[in-house]
Amino acid sequence: MKSFQTLFLAAAALLICSCCNCKPAEKPDTEAMKNKVYSISMNKICKEWDGQWQGMAVASDGNCYFGSSTHAKSHGAGFHKFDPRTYKHTMIVEDMTYLCGEQDLPFQQGKIHSPIVECDGWLYFCTHLSNYWKEGIEAYPGAHVFGYEMATGNFRDYGIVKPRYSIYSAIAVDPVLKKLYVFSVPFVPELYKEDGCHLMSIDMVTGEKKDCGKVVDGRLGASFWFFVDNNSNVWFTLWKRNYVYENDFGNLYCYNPESDSITTYDNVLPKGQLIDGTPVSEARNEQRAWTWLSPFPGRDKCYFIQGTLGGGDERLWIFDPAKDIVSGEAFEPVAYIGSSYFETAVGGDRLYFCQYEDLEDARTIFSEDEREIDPDSEQYVDRKIHLRSISLKDEGPNREIKDHGALIDQDGRQALMIMSMAADDAGHVFVYGSWRPNSFKEATLQYLLFEYPNGDLYRLLKRGEFFAVIDTNKD
């Protein structure tokens, strides 16, 4: 277990800016700030950043904090800050591998693939392995959990939570018991065949780590979101699109720290419906899982969806753990919104979400696959991604869906995929994703799982990674 290292790690973070060719913070001119959609190229900073999933939050200081991730074997994840009041972008850390002190080892801490959660002026998030092939998986020592103090810029490294296990990908904080919870997952075959996935806790003060129990036995698994309620219970589901669990076809799980036990509620998650009320297929219903959630301020309830890759339901829900779960009373449908995924956020009294313009496309096409299609090929179809929202103050399921327009930035670039999203109370929506670049300087350099005949290990893609802010006040 690592001790407090805030001063040391803060100094190390400053050194990273010089050793990794960190670029200075960007501050656009006043003309740029007038744009409704304003983007910043991430690949002008690091060519290997090729995506970002979760890992974005608006903090109590008003800034948006976010990660930038990669699958490369030569570069790790970045950690950034954006101030919507000045449009100033600051790169806090260019390569998390250096902050972990692992830069001389044959792997990278390639992703911040977890929510970013806040407690008492600190932000908390997890690292995740970058390269999914045999070499990288076998060398990976395990995922770290970090705290970042916003007022001082100090980091605290809680170290590797479970040796040789990554975190995929949930993290949540209990502000009363001062505990962090993460979902620990082995990617090495012998580990997940002999063991499985565990719920782990970390004492935020002492750093003590505790195994709260095995959740998945004898296989890989994933859980993207935790909800810690106001009684310190930890609620979660298992993601099923890429994994099959013999005894989970819509289960809800709850860890109670007082009894130190996990309760399983079998097949209780709501059955899916499309936006017109049509039931989704039984095959899709077997994939039911939370694919996004947001706790209420008092943590007595949470919003959640089971949309794209989570069963196909097209509604926003409220989960109230004080009500009966088995009967379904604990699950209240709020509004029909269409299919959505990680690209969902609460800002003020509105729920924002990104979708293809055509709702049929939104429910049948996964943008992470679509973004790879060459725009010059016969297979390419120009599908625009729109920002939409509903009011959370209105009542009834058929609330008006406001379309804020297609995601096209100040220089005409078009969004291809959005997988990270956050929003503030002032009408700013923040997104990270793949956009069509205007030049090769903005394009992603992707590491390959195999060599080209000429020996190349990288290829320049016809997409680039961009952070963007949308000012909905300019609608």
Give a verbal description of the structure:
There is one protein chain. β14 (226-228) and β15 form a beta hairpin. The protein starts with 5 loop residues before the first helix and ends with a strand. A four-stranded antiparallel sheet has the order 1-30-27-26. Residues 1-25 have low confidence and may be disordered. Helix content is 9%, strand content 36%. It contains seven helices and 30 strands. The chain is mainly beta. It has two domains: 1-28 and 55-224, Beta Barrel (Lipocalin); 35-53 and 350-475, no CATH class. The longest helix is centred in the N-terminal third of the chain and has 14 residues, at 6-19.
CATH topology category name of the largest domain: Lipocalin
Average residue-wise pLDDT: 92
DSSP strand tally: 30
Helix-strand makeup class: mainly beta
Alpha-carbon distance between the two ends: 50 Å
Q: Helix segment count?
A: 7
User: pLDDT below 50 for ≥5 consecutive residues: which ranges?
Assistant: 1-25
**What's the helical proportion of residues?**
under 10%
- The CATH class assignment of the largest domain is Mainly Beta
Tertiary shape: globular
How much of the sequence lies in strands comes to: 35-45%
- Major sheet size, sense and barrel closure: 4 strands, antiparallel
Quickly give the CATH architecture of the largest domain: Beta Barrel
Q: What integer value in Å does the Rg equal?
A: 21 Å
Instruction: Give the count of structural domains.
Output: 2
In the sheet with the most strands, the strands line up as 1-30-27-26
